[in-house]
Amino acid sequence: MKLHFTYWLLAGFLLLADIARAQQVTLTPEQIKTLTAAWTGERFPDGRPKVPDALLQRLKKISIEEAWGILRNKGYQNQFEGEWMLLRNEQVMTGRVVTAQYMPMRPDMDQLIKDKGKAEGRIGGTNSWPIDVLSNGDVYVADSYGKVVDGTLIGDNLGNSIYAKSRNGVIFYGSVRDMEGLEEIDGFTAWVKGYDPSYIQQMMLAGINVPIRIGRATVLPGDVVLAKKGGVIFIPAHLLEEVVLNAEFIALRDQFGHQRLREGKYTPGQIDTQWTDAIKKDFLQWLDTQGNKLPMSRPELDKFMQNRTW
User: Fold this and answer.
1) Which residues are noted in the entry as substrate-binding (predicted)?
2) Per the annotation, where are the binding residues?
């Protein structure tokens, strides 16, 4: 019995030692690849999916409702969060997500994270560490559990650094300070839950590029974000092309239908129900007249329509 107890006691000590050694500030590239295994394209050195810049630009023209509907039909029903305070109401932001998780301060864990960060060569306050990993086209997305007073993750200094590295803005389930200074950063924008003049206190960084929760949404590193006045939607990287092409195709159908209704060629009942073969043929002929007005290349469209059920 004593030998048995000693065995389990030793095993417990070894397990704790392994946990301490394995404590990471960020997930490893292999762990991120495992999380995002459905993505088969190019990746960043940190393991995050690297979706094409061209798709990010096209995504800006997609509505939140269109993207949400497509994701919902694919089984992704928890990717949207609304009710934000916006730095600039008129701006639209798309980009590749870098995540950060913050928690209420716990000294022992905080020290463990800081020691690990120091060993990895990280410098400055822990709230600057996620900024250091940003690259062009990234969006810094942080869960700071809705803390507003004493929960301000950045002010104008860090805001300038974020924009210099990413040419994008931030999405914080929390708050910022120096709102006037942030507004002066040309091109920078933010979706946050509040503003406060206080400094960050009694908070700690728990991880970079780890899965996080943003309100109603589950967000993974390498997701693609579409942020508009109405809210924010997080798109798994492997579904981005499908979301964009589907939404663009629906927009073309609507454009065709509206034009034909104005011309009086069809009735609303004909356009709003399953199209007849004659209307489908008319639509395909109409597409041939659009030329460079199409949002996608014609080969992309033809390939997409091969699997389309209308």
Assistant:
1) 155-158, 177
2) 155-158, 177-178
Binding-site residue numbers for substrate are 155-158, 177
**Residue 8 within a domain:** no
Annotated binding site for Mg(2+): 178
Domain boundary among 176, 206, 235: 235
Last residue of a domain, one of 235, 254, 281: 235
pLDDT at 23 (0 to 100): 59
Alpha-carbon separation of residue 244 from 58, 183, 250, 258 (angstroms): 7, 30, 10, 21
The pLDDT, as a whole number, for residue 13 is 38
Domain that holds residue 289: 241-306
Q: At what angle are helices 64-73 and 240-263 packed, to 10 degrees?
A: 120
Q: Is 23 part of a structural domain of the chain?
A: no
In this structure, the answer to whether residues 175 and 215 fall within a common structural domain is yes
Q: What is the mean pLDDT of each run of 10 residues along the chain (310 residues)?
A: 42 39 81 98 98 97 95 97 96 97 98 95 95 98 98 97 98 97 97 97 98 98 97 98 95 96 97 95 95 92 84
The pTM score is 0.88
